[in-house]
Amino acid sequence: MTLEPDLRDALLAAVPSLRAFAISLSGQVDRADDLVQDTLLRALSNIHRFEPGTNLNAWLFTILRNLFHSDYRKRRREVEDPDGSYAGRLVVEPEQGAKLDFEDFRTALSKLPHDQREALLLVGASGFSYEEAAAICGCAVGTIKSRVNRARFRLASMLQVETDDDLGPDSMTRAALQTSS
């Protein structure tokens, strides 16, 4: 591609102004130089869109400004991690364990006696107080507390939950997650 000498000279003459504008936008000389270079590349690849007789500087400044804002939006979502240490600490537990645990819970819940399941769901899942649950079930508050306690104990027994460590990922998954971080 050959440029007309006047257009080439006008592009070169715009570089100092473009650089000053890029520095004012980015606050970094290196970043500003990259912006100016990207602006000139974009302008040259789209020179056929420039209308001779219009303001070349305005066209170039618009390109630079748009490149800066596009890059700013992109960089806002990025995390600088040159040595990969941040990415190395990111750990996601596998989903299948939680899905299987939930299915086990649903199965165990369905095996509870109706009155215990009802009391547990009212207090534990629906957030009703013991008093409200007792009023809904038409029984004493102590009866609801007893049903909820027995339901929790039975669920823990069916699901083989003895300590807090039994909740969440299994020991092999926990070990794998710890060695990767």
Automatic annotation (TrEMBL):
Domain annotation RNA polymerase sigma factor 70 region 4 type: ranges: 103-152
Keyword NAD: no
Lineage top rank: taxon: Bacteria
GO terms for MF: DNA binding; sigma factor activity
Keyword Transcription included in the entry's annotation: yes
One of the GO biological process terms: DNA-templated transcription initiation
The entry's keywords: DNA-binding, Sigma factor, Transcription, Transcription regulation
Listed InterPro entries: RNA_pol_sigma-70-like, RNA_pol_sigma-70_dom, RNA_pol_sigma70_ECF_CS, RNA_pol_sigma70_r2, RNA_pol_sigma70_r4_t2, RNA_pol_sigma_r2, RNA_pol_sigma_r3/r4-like, WH-like_DNA-bd_sf
Domain RNA polymerase sigma-70 region: residue ranges: 16-77
Pfam family, one: Sigma70_r2
PANTHER family per the UniProt record, alphabetical: RNA POLYMERASE ECF-TYPE SIGMA FACTO, RNA POLYMERASE SIGMA FACTOR RFAY-RELATED
Similarity comment text for this entry: Belongs to the sigma-70 factor family. ECF subfamily.
NCBIfam families given in the database record: PRK12540.1 (NF009192), PRK12547.1 (NF009199), sigma70-ECF (TIGR02937)
UniProt name for this protein: RNA polymerase sigma factor
Organism name: Microvirga brassicacearum
